[in-house]
Specification:
The chain has helices at about 20-25, 50-60, 60-85, 100-110, 130-135, 145-155, 170-185, and strands at about 20, 35-45, 120-130, 160-165. By secondary structure, it is α+β, with helices and mostly antiparallel strands. The protein has two domains: about 10-45 and about 115-185, GIY-YIG endonuclease, CATH 3.40.1440; about 55-100. Strands 1-4-2-3 form a four-stranded antiparallel β-sheet. α2 crosses α6. The chain is elongated, with a radius of gyration of 20 Å. The chain starts with 17 loop residues before the first strand and ends in a 9-residue tail after the last helix. Bound molecules: zinc ion. The site of zinc ion has 6 residues, from loops. Zinc ion (ZN) binds next to loops.
Length: about 190
């Protein structure tokens, strides 16, 4: 396959590619509030070291803390079950909590899908009715790219963001993806449809 043009400064019609770290530091205030399309790509990073990235992230204080949280959640679940039973409410009423440790591991394993397309740096193509909110979602664990992106950054990668305001955002997203698929035969990384 011939090398794609997704490394260039005008890749997929996006200009002003900016490091994600810079956007986050600015609390995403330089990202437009209005609707549009957006894209994430690798600025600097070695995609042959994916195993290392995963193991480094698993040893991070975040994963350790989520593991502890799981153990505490189980204790609270048991204690509440006991309390409700003591109150004469019967068994199996124990409070349930999300297993964040498991969810984090699941999302982290999404990294296995890289390299999606031989050397192509594009990680994600999307559209939103509020670009700023959507990019911010990555920091709130509300975006499919959240955990992989944190893991990449934790291993010293640079991730770039491109945004473009456009009112016909959903059609534009479909058009970019269609063109991307024509050039690369499949969609990038964790983009499913
Ligand atoms: Zn490409």
């Amino acid at each position: 396959m011939k090398k794609c043009k997704c490394h260039t400064s005008t890749a997929l019609g996006f200009r002003d590619w900016k490091p994600f770290q810079e956007c986050a530091e600015e609390r995403f205030e330089t990202i437009p509030q209005e609707q549009g399309v957006y894209c994430f790509r690798i600025g600097k990073g070695d995609i042959t070291k994916l195993k290392k990235i995963k193991s480094a992230f698993r040893e991070s204080p975040l994963v350790t803390a989520f593991d502890k949280m799981r153990i505490v959640s189980e204790k609270v679940s048991k204690a509440s079950n006991q309390l409700f039973n003591d109150c004469g409410l019967g068994q199996e009423w124990g409070l349930k909590f999300p297993n964040y440790a498991e969810a984090l591991e699941y999302d982290l394993n999404g990294i296995d899908e890289l390299p999606g397309n031989d050397g192509c740096p594009i990680l994600y193509i999307g559209a939103s009715d509020s670009l700023r909110e959507r990019i911010k979602n990555v920091m709130e664990w509300k975006h499919p790219l959240s955990v992989p992106l944190w893991a990449f950054l934790y291993s010293g990668w640079t991730i770039q963001v491109g945004v473009r305001s456009i009112t016909d955002n959903w059609n534009e997203e479909a058009k970019i993806k269609r063109e991307y698929k024509t050039d690369h035969r499949k969609l990038p990384f964790i983009v499913k449809r």
